[in-house]
Amino acid sequence: MTNRSTLLLIAALGTASAPAFAHVFVQSGTATVGGSYRAVLAVPHGCGASPTTKITVQIPEGMIAVKPMPKPGWLIETKKGPYAQSYDFMHGMKASEGIKQISWTGKLENDFYDEFVFSAYLPASLKADAPLYLPTLQTCENGSEDWAQIPAAGQDSHSLKSPAPAVRLAAAPAKDAMAQMAGMIHAGDLMISAPWTRATPPAAKVAGGYLTVTNNGKSSDRLIGGSFAGGSRIEVHEMSVTDGVMKMRPLNAGLEIKPGATVKLEPGGYHLMLMDLKKPFAKGEKIKAQLQFEKAGKVDVELDVNAVGASAPAGGGHAH
Fold it and tell me: Ranges for the YncI copper-binding domain (predicted)?
């Protein structure tokens, strides 16, 4: 083989092994306005061969109620500020300020890929079929990459050297909105929506449960626990990161739902633990359960069983 042929072969192999994405991008794709959104920011490489040590994302106007997910081994810092306007939030509430910037500090070697996650709410007033851009600064041990370029009208973002990660917005189908409303229940001053869980392996004895609770009253209530068909009891737990180690603990005093607050029980944060399963949960099933609140009392719900590893409800659980 000639030297020229050898060089051509090396170049071809190098091109074939290059990552599919050469920049930081949003893995989670299209988002529906008028609802919650789980943003997954993907980092496919470092700065050249240098490890990534910090990811800083700017939250665009219109993306509200942002909450970053803890990440083992990484320190999270946030900056808050006022929004340019007040936005309608869930159940008639208004939001006028919140997190405007998130930074994760840690270390990601160039040989590895990783994801950085946060949840947000996208008000119905946002324009569908239009992107939201999340300028992101990737700081490395040697150098940095500022993924902040926003394309002009009609310009292809692929033509930019350092395009900002983008989320494309879509209008909510009417049937989805109706299904979401059908999955809500009032229990005193509380409103409960979208109860769900995940399918479990055959030998599993516990399962996580998730839902959203809004307190429209003037005094606090507490979610204490509950019971469910096919197991012994429901406990309320919290997932948190201490000194870079993710830990889970039961909330023996229950989870406080403050007046005017909306509390999400979701993967990586507050959640229900369904204990002592008698049989595994299968995707498509509905698990009958009864939640116990300090003031609202007992509330019957059905948890939709989604796929193993699901990160959000498929279409809204049901409450009665």
Answer: 23-169
The answer to whether residues 215 and 287 belong to one domain is yes
Assessment of whether the complete model's pTM goes beyond 0.85? no
CB 101 within 8 A of CB 56: yes
Q: What 3-state DSSP class applies to 67?
A: strand
SS3 (DSSP) at 232: coil
Q: What is the pLDDT along the chain (320 residues), one digit of tens a residue?
A: 444 444 443 333 333 333 345 789 998 667 888 888 889 999 999 999 999 999 999 999 999 999 999 999 999 999 999 999 999 876 667 889 999 999 999 999 999 999 999 999 999 889 888 899 999 999 999 999 999 999 998 888 888 999 999 998 988 765 444 444 445 777 888 989 889 999 999 989 999 999 999 998 889 999 999 999 999 999 999 987 666 677 889 999 999 999 888 999 998 889 999 999 999 999 999 999 999 999 999 999 999 999 887 777 765 444 44
Domain boundary among 118, 151, 170: 170
One domain, residues 263 and 190:
yes
